[in-house]
User: What shape does this take?
Amino acid sequence: MTDVQVIAPVAIRVLLTELVEGIGRETGLDVGLTFDLNPAVARRITAGEAFDLAITNPWHVAELVAAGLARADSETAFWTIPLAIAAREMREAAAPEDILRQATSVAYTAEGTSGQTFLRVAEKLGVLNAIRPRLMPMGAGEPVRAVAAGEAEIAIAPLTTILAAPGVVGLAEFDRSLGASIDLSMVLCGDAPALGAEALLAALADPALDAALAAGGMARGPR
Assistant: This one.
């Protein structure tokens, strides 16, 4: 039987699964993981899906707290993920805006936080209108798979997704000053969370995991 139920963004599926498995081996805690796009994490909880610990964007956490579905005193700043560009092979280094201008097709996640962040960043860089005819909006996880399959030249995705995906490499990261990082927070459910939920939150917030987070494409706290 699962001790703690977690709902988290698909962008951290691989790394969170590995971290939770390690915590489980050390503590004996049995953790159930459900993954979805960041906006969908909040929608699932609002629709009544049971959870003990949620990980999503801070503004979604604020919505859950305001609705009485999450505990305000448990919110913990978590990982932040750079937005990056993926391709099948490495090439000569170039600025992200130049890569975008030259690409014949640009795949991105239409409904996720990464996709909406990308559109805002592209507009700030002054390239959105120029590349709009070459944009390929897709579902969760599809952009990097499209690049690996040769169906798109480049993909815009969280760095965590790119590092975990076979057949693609990271070409460049967008400058953090553009608001191109994806911040995440953890929060416990508004009702009494399952025994072990607070311990899991504390374990995931432990700075001892920083090296693993960095290797997986993340950093602790806002960038």
In short: The chain has a mean pLDDT of 95.
